[in-house]
Each structure stands twice: as structure tokens, then as C-alpha cells.
Amino acid sequence: MTVPKTSDRGRYHHGDLKEAVLDTAVKVIAEHGLSGFSLAEASRRLGVTVAAPYRHFADRDEVLVALALRAVDRLSAALEAETGEAGEPAEAGETSAAAERLADCARGYVRFAATNRSLYLVLLNSTLDKSRYTELQDAGQRIGGVFLQPALELCDQDAAAAQQLVIAIIATTQGYAAMVLDGTFGPGSDAVDTATTQAANAVFALVRGRAALGRP
Amino acid sequence: MTVPKTSDRGRYHHGDLKEAVLDTAVKVIAEHGLSGFSLAEASRRLGVTVAAPYRHFADRDEVLVALALRAVDRLSAALEAETGEAGEPAEAGETSAAAERLADCARGYVRFAATNRSLYLVLLNSTLDKSRYTELQDAGQRIGGVFLQPALELCDQDAAAAQQLVIAIIATTQGYAAMVLDGTFGPGSDAVDTATTQAANAVFALVRGRAALGRP
DNA sequence: GTCTATACCCGGATAGAC
DNA sequence: GTCTATCCGGGTATAGAC
To answer: Which of A39, B36, B108, B201 has the fewest Cβ atoms within 10 Å of its own Cβ atom?
Structure first.
């Protein structure tokens, strides 16, 4: 968050240009979308020549990869944080603790997408050659993993059933995220609350009706 | 599908260049994504000067709008076709006819996304100024409308409940569509079948567990 | 580690001829 | 309705100086 400068006439001489580029990329993408980002634009905003960033990134794609990795880290962190907070201990209520954890994941996911639009876009919409950037191969796995344990509990350790439940839950969550991002729930933070709540409820609905997931 | 030419040395002189541009745009987008499309590239493929398309479209965006409209038409047609086919009459089985129709919608939606990648991308990912192109305002409404009637039946005409059910179903369906498009279910047509089936099952699950959607 | 300068390509868009 | 010709802006990327 702090802008690193060496106070040398406002230039980034020896400052952490790499991080600065990434931060700027986030802002640009938030404003103009993925295709609106360019190293040229970022350089301009940072008061730096277009050539400078090439000391830190081989090309444009490498910036996006770095952002994607940052996105995976922060998203999984957000999910784990959300599930770790342990709201009500669920005192043997009508919904199981596992279901609550899944709903928490959904909330965290949607909230992350809404409050980290750029990173989420990079993670989801960037058409990076996943075979070339192996670091991104398991991005999906890493996110899905957080959902898996509670799902296994709910499905009595039936791996196949849990897998399908996870997919259904992530699909749904992803759908709510997409909706909140393109304004289906309106503007402002009310929209985020609406989306997170409804996403969590949808997860509960999926859990309740999960018997239907095994159909042929 | 037929390429309209006047057989005048392979040129489009007096041919239906407008349609040809749209068809070409679909192909280009399928190969290189939304941002990979340009009037220049389309012109090149059609053996026409870059200036020619401007007789038919004011600018690049107008092409995308035309594609989006085509997308809405075909998608709603696909949904209505899917629901109209009336598979098994549901002979008072365990799932209601309304639920079957919703599942059919989901199937149609996912299948459309998979088999009309470009049109779907334009419809969902194009950042067109919806306030400038009023024709697109009600695109979402038109799609959602197909889901609404069956949902109302299921919810005993409770409009608010039906609305939330529709949103949940569309979110889920959209999620499966996104997944099949970025290869989560693998390549080939098997993936499409998997995705459509699971999407339909998820809809059944949501319907079964819909009591949870009303939570605070 | 950054700057200057530069070469290159591509897309958008228009004027005027045919 | 299309072509020729042209202008403009913008992005990528590199070489070489400091």
C-alpha cells in the first residue's frame, strides 16, 4: 500500500518498481478491465519510462501471471480466514457445522470478488496459457480444496459425491460473484451484502437438496 | 451459414457484407477471444478493405451490439425450444413438471454456451455501455423471464421467493457454463454432457432445498 | 535501475475516387 | 458498396547511454 520512492525528485529510482507496477495494474484493471491494462499505461501513471518495467517483467503476460498468483494467495487466505472465524458454534442446530463452513466459503468467495475485482478478473478471465505457466496449474485445485473437507463430512466420506457437491457449490458461488461484478444486484456495498447472503443461502439449499446431485 | 458472394472474382461486391462480418466476428472471437476481434482482422479474412465494413457499422462496438442481440435471440430461442420439447410427461413422479422445465432451461443454457462460445462471450463479457445501447437493457430480463413461470409455480405464486429461486438457478447455471468454457470438465463433447447433466441436477437440488433461500 | 530514442506493428477511422 | 490512400494514436520491445 505504501508507495516506495527514494524521494529522488519523485522518481522510482531504486524504489520497488516491481511491486509498484503490480499495484498500478490492479488499479488500471479495476478502471478499464483486463484488456485496458498495458505496461505503457502503468509506466505513465508511475512517472516512469515504458522501458523501465522490462527490467522486472519479461513481457506483459508475466505481469498478469504475477497478479494471478497474488490472486490465488489472497483468495485462499480469505477463504481460510472466513471459515476459521467460527461464528456460532452451531450448537447442534438445524444446519450442520460443515454446511456452515461451506456457506462461509461462499460468502468469502463472493466478498473477495467484489472487493478485489481486478485480481478476481485476472484469475478468472485472463486467457493465460496455463500449460506455459505451470504455477497456475493448480490454482483451481487450491481453491476447491478449501471446500472439499466440509463436503466430505456431509457426504459421509463419499469422495465422488463430495466432488460433485463441491463443483455445484463453486459453480453457484462463481455465478453470484459474476452477478455482483456486473451490477445485477445494483451498485454500492448493499449489493455485496445481498450477493453474499444469497450465495450462502443457495449453498444451504444445495446441501439440503444434494440427494439430487447423483442423478444419471 | 452460406457465404454470400456475387461470384465477382471472390469479392463481396454487393454481397451481404454485413452478415459476413458478423459471421466472421464469431469465428475470430471463438479463436482469439473478445479482445482479439477487430474490424481489421475481419476485413482481412473476408478479402475486403478495412474501410468496407464502415458502410454497415458505425464502429467496432456496433458489431458487438449486433452480436449481442443475435445472442439474446438465439439463447432465448434455445431455452424455449428446450422447455417445449416435453420429454417425459413427468407422470406425477417425484419431481414436478415445473422443476423439470427449470432443469431443461439449465441444460439449454449450458449447452448454448458450449456450442456458441463466441455469442455467449459477447453477451456476458463484453463491456458495452448498456445505457447507450438500450436494446440490450432487457437482455437479462428476457432470459430470466423463461425461468420465472416455472419458478412461480413452485413457489405457489410467491413472487419474491420465485425471484430468489430464479437468481439462484441462473447463478448456478452461469457457473457451470463458465466452467465448461474454460475446460474444467475437460475438452470434447463429453464435457458438455457432463456439464449439462450436473447443471440440471444442481437445479433439482436447489429446488428441493429452496426453503433455505429465504434466510435473513 | 532507469532514461532516451527508436523501430515496428496494429487497430480505428475518414476523405474522395470509382 | 467497395477501394485507395492516409492519418492518428497506442502498445510492445530493444539498444545503448548514464
So the answer is: B36
